[in-house]
């Protein structure tokens, strides 16, 4: 017998969890993430879903009913470093539970329904967000993806065979349920909401280069210190994002030689920038880069900025969003934007009509062990997803 929502959630809770922080380390193709992938296949099999995978590690469990373009749902099982429990897995568990609920209601879809798991959504190992869905849609070529490396220098091509994917060939609509990664639904007093758009966002590598030297004997005026240039760049990014009402974050940094008693020779830092429009994103990164370069010239250091990934703004199909949100008990669900990236954005940009459902997060905190969602709200989300799948397959 397949497990119900609460049992599934209990089964997943300890996998990849840090005893020190309570956060999750479920990086792609590591033991915890592979354990979750095997669990997903078991759950699909218990429900009689036909399991199909591609050469990149993406998996779909198909409920082969009806005919015509399929309706796909699901999310991802990987996490950021020291992440929360709900980002990704909530959408997978809810999708399986929604299939159960539809069957309990006696629903027989007129179109096939699939439950998906896309790999490496977070980009926490190989540095490119939504890697699995990019490969599945064909917007990223395997030859370009296979050379991506993790922090230990292991290439993606060394851990997965690669090749091609036909998982999405029959998909006519995609619906992703996700925990909200902010406070919009909390402020509205709503358990669930529907996405209107995803802000454009990008990841940029800033390589600052200077000259290693002795921390004690080198006078301050004689230094070519890339850490100083980096520090001023972080402050500039914070100021410019605040002035523009946008988002800029330096959350990862690598220093060489990384010694306490040495002026660094190089600092590599990654900027995550998100803005309300594509033009605003380009302007923000340009201003930050210009201020960083100006500072480098004064510090005697050098700077190279590389755009590692940039995702344009995604406006979800407004008619589909309105249809998903409308005419529910208690009124229409709110339609809200999100500043977080999702596989749904990749599928939408690839031409697949796409909708997203959000479940309220009472803390408003995400990418952290403090990320939360109550069981009652999660069950409302399951019901909302089942309602949506019924509408789309009626």
Automatic annotation (TrEMBL):
It comes from the Bacteria. The keyword 4Fe-4S does not apply. Gene3D superfamilies: 3.30.70.360, Zn peptidases. Keywords: Hydrolase. InterPro entries: Amidase_Cbmase, Bact_exopeptidase_dim_dom, Peptidase_M20. NCBIfam families: hydantase (TIGR01879), PRK09290.1-4 (NF006770). Belongs to the peptidase M20 family. This is Allantoate amidohydrolase. It comes from Nocardioides conyzicola.
């Amino acid at each position: 017998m397949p497990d119900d929502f609460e049992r599934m959630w209990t089964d997943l809770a300890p996998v990849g969890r840090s005893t020190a922080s309570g956060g999750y380390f479920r990086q792609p193709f590591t033991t915890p993430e592979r354990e979750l992938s095997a669990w997903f296949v078991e759950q699909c099999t218990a429900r009689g879903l036909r399991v199909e995978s591609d050469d990149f590690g993406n998996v779909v469990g198909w409920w082969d009913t009806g005919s015509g373009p399929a309706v796909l749902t699901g999310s991802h099982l990987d996490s950021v470093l020291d992440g929360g429990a709900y980002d990704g897995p909530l959408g997978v568990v809810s999708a399986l539970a929604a299939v159960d609920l539809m069957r309990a209601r006696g629903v027989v879809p007129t179109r096939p329904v699939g439950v998906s798991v896309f790999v490496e959504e977070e980009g926490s190992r190989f540095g490119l967000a939504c890697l699995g869905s990019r490969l599945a849609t064909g917007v990223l070529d395997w030859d370009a993806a296979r050379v991506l490396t993790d922090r230990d220098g292991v290439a993606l091509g060394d851990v997965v065979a690669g090749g091609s994917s036909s998982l999405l060939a029959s998909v006519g609509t995609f619906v992703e349920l996700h925990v909200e990664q902010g406070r919009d639904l909390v402020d509205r007093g709503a358990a669930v909401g529907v996405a209107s758009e995803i802000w454009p966002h990008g990841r940029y590598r800033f390589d600052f280069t200077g000259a290693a030297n002795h921390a004690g004997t080198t006078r301050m005026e004689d230094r070519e210190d890339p850490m100083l240039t980096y520090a001023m760049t972080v402050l500039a990014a914070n100021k410019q994002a605040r002035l523009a009402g946008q988002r800029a974050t330096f959350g990862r940094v690598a220093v060489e030689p990384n010694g306490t008693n040495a002026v660094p020779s190089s600092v590599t830092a990654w900027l995550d920038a998100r803005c309300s429009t594509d033009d605003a994103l380009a302007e923000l990164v340009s201003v930050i880069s210009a201020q960083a370069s100006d500072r480098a010239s004064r510090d005697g250091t050098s700077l190279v900025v590389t755009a590692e990934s940039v995702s344009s703004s995604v406006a979800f199909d407004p008619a589909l969003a309105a249809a998903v949100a409308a005419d529910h008990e208690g009124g229409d669900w709110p339609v809200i934007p999100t500043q977080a990236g999702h596989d749904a954005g990749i599928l939408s940009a690839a031409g697949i009509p796409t909708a997203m459902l959000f479940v309220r997060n009472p803390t408003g905190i995400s990418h952290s062990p403090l990320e939360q969602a109550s069981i009652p709200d999660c069950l409302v989300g399951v019901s909302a997803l089942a309602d949506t799948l019924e509408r789309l397959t009626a």
